[in-house]
């Protein structure tokens, strides 16, 4: 077996991609290289190590015992390389370069995009990429520089703060209101629009179900924008961020104390806290986005 110092980091990076995705094709797509190159670099690594690192099956690639050991060390190397890159980025002293942000679709469209557009006009040397993600984005793996989301960030390496508080209302289209005039909250004839099963435990989803215990769900989605469109089409009642429902001209209905509010948090890796373009964007957003909406 060749010495560890002779191993190529690029081969290890490709090895990690295969381990995480399970196939050569998926790893190649993730790394934006060809599948033959992916397979060739894996064979080169296995020859350098002197071991077969994956069991090849018709269902995918599975790590051997030696492959599992290599993965542990390769991931440590990846973490160190990523940390070094972040620290070098954080040393930048000019307001220029690229920033990658991640947030939900409705929040990106109605809140972040107008503010970022104004920021870009004032800072023409900064390029902002805004990703619409429903999954949890990994800041430690540099999938984004700045993330906006409801759940708290668990890693101690992430600097986080409350960004804004979102108010919600119960909305319906005027057509739906006219069609259901006279129905009480316990009627079985009401129709609801809500979250999919994975998000049914959210506070506003529970609030809606408690208010209309006998109503059936006509439409469910994990996207607020899609819920709002269904509500606008007269499908049923929906709990939506107030800014989203009012933008579409939906009618806000008085319903007791109203749905519970939620706080959107922002988070970024501590290694980027001195990155001037990030600090400039954070300061700009702090002065342009209201504390409550």
UniProtKB/TrEMBL annotation:
The keyword DNA-binding applies. The keyword ATP-binding does not apply. InterPro entries: LysR-type_TF_proteobact-type, LysR_HTH_N, LysR_subst-bd, WH-like_DNA-bd_sf, WH_DNA-bd_sf. One of its GO terms (molecular function) is sequence-specific DNA binding. Gene3D superfamilies: 3.40.190.290, Winged helix-like DNA-binding domain superfamily/Winged helix DNA-binding domain. It comes from the Bacteria. GO terms for biological process: DNA-templated transcription. Residues 7-64 form the HTH lysR-type domain. Keywords: DNA-binding, Transcription, Transcription regulation. Pfam families: HTH_1, LysR_substrate. Belongs to the LysR transcriptional regulatory family. This is Transcriptional regulator. It comes from Acetobacter nitrogenifigens DSM 23921 = NBRC 105050. The lineage of its organism: Bacteria, Pseudomonadati, Pseudomonadota, Alphaproteobacteria, Acetobacterales.
